[in-house]
Amino acid sequence: MKYDFLFKRGRIVDPANHRDFVGDVAVKGDKIAKVQEEIDDSLSEQVIDISGKVIIPGIIDTHCHVARPYAKGAGYRMLINTGVTTAIDFEGPIEVIKREITKYGCGLNVAALEGIFPENGIESQDPPLEKLKKVINKNLDSGAIGIKILGGHYPLTPEATYNIFQITHQEKGYMGFHVGTTETGSDILGVEEAVKLAEGKPLHIAHVNAYCRGYVEDPLLELKIVMDILKKSPNIISESHLAIHNGCYGGIDENGIPISYVLRNSLKANGYQVSKEGLEEALRLKYAGVTALVGNQMEYIYGSEAIDYWKKREYKVGVCFPINRRRSAQVCATERDKKGNFVIDAISSDGGAIPRNCILSHGLSLVRFCALTLSELVQKISLTPSRMFGLKNKGCLSIGADADITIFDPDNAKVAIVLIKGQACMVSGIIFNNPGRLMVTERGAKKLEKQEIPLEVINLEDSLYFKGKGGEGKQVKH
Ligand SMILES: [Zn+2]
Questions:
Q1: Are 245 and 208 in contact (CB under 8 A)?
Q2: What pLDDT, in 10s, does the model give residues 47-87?
């Protein structure tokens, strides 16, 4: 047979090739073989009618979390169920991903940035340069494609932050930053500082919407300030998400104070005491929730159930607050510069094992609201993400591209079929648990050769991140 799969009569949305029409898509092996209005049924092993559904290049989630204690692979399942084919984990640990990806991976392509914060590689907020060099090199050798600083949660000094940027850049790693240092916070002042510390070099600023919560100025003014900064900074790559909930670590230090600065601010924002007792009160009154494994997925639990869960695990659980503003989510997802290019490159989930995998469900709401066209949504959740990380064979349905495909019902955002590299990975909620594939750079591949983890080598030098956006008007072109 000429083809393995033939998807018939779907709405094909493929912005890289300026396609938006009802037609057929054929797959052979792990590649897209043909896309046109009608392809002969007799040429394919399997013919699947997808009338009424939309078929797009697989969703690339540019910021999520699959490696979570207690999740038992739930992150992978939740991603595949919401149509994601490629996931960039924004914290690691890479060692957990390496341990789990063959068992739980659901066929997903996964790359990871390794988080650097006190108790994960370093001892203090101001570690010596030599120590940082050692930790960063170790992580890049173990298969992480880059480094993440979780400044908002665990701030480091501006000097340490700057040094991590510099070393990661020298070592050709991808640098992700949740803004904030000991001098600023997870807010617009943190964004201003981050751009200064980057000194024009590439930097990925995570979840921009989360810095516009009204902590410094009126949130509308904060949005204006952040957009103006980003418009002037072509070296900054960024994404935003559409979820209401944030995600923090529920841990408490020896003085009875929550360790995460984001958690402290979330308590403060609604008038709760910044202490273990304050958090317990917020959990009791259901302002805060705890993320817990319920059945085979992670869910939010509240009230006494949440308090028991949090205490039983010595506070080492994920805690969330409904603190992200809708207005900030909408503006970050849709704002453009004068040339019509999106200011923020991608829509991510910041989900995975955190239950906020709403890229498609909320993204389609923006389409219904006419804030984005369907083609623009695909640009922000597949095409541009592929360019951000130099994934040349993804993000489009070109002949010869990887057969990473998401098929969904546009009315209810239900994902019907997910194909990754030509393999059926999820059909109508049934997951075929294929091993995942770890995406690594040449450097990581060398060290991982002997381990039995399926690998895909990527070249970050071809990425939008390293090549830059070249100023306004020169964003993603195919
Ligand atoms: Zn995150």
A1: no
A2: 999 999 999 999 999 999 999 878 999 999 999 999 999 99
CATH of segment(s) 58-243+324-393+441-471:
3.20.20.140
CATH number for 3-57+394-440 (one of 2.30.29.30, 2.40.10.340, 2.30.40.10, 3.30.70.60): it is: 2.30.40.10
Q: What residues sit around ligand 1, an ion, with C-beta below 5 angstroms?
A: 90, 350
Could you give the maximum distance between any two Cα atoms of the chain, in Å? Answer: 71
Q: How far apart are alpha carbons 424 and 417 in whole angstroms?
A: 7
> How far away, in angstroms, is 64 Cα from ligand 1 center?
6
Tell me how far the alpha carbon of residue 234 lies from the centroid of ligand 1, in angstroms. 22
Quote the CA–CA distance of 424 and 431 in Å, as a whole number. 9
| Ligand 1 midpoint to CA 63 (Å) | 6
pTM of the model as a whole: 0.97
Q: pLDDT, tens digit, for every residue of 381-418? A: 999 999 999 999 999 999 999 999 999 999 999 999 99
Ligand 1 mean position to 53 CA, how many Å?
Answer: 30
Rounded to the nearest angstrom, the distance between the alpha carbon of 245 and the centre of ligand 1 is 12
Q: What are the residue boundaries of the structural domains of the chain, listed by start?
A: 3-57+394-440, 58-243+324-393+441-471, 245-321
Cα-to-centroid distance, 394 and ligand 1 (Å): 23
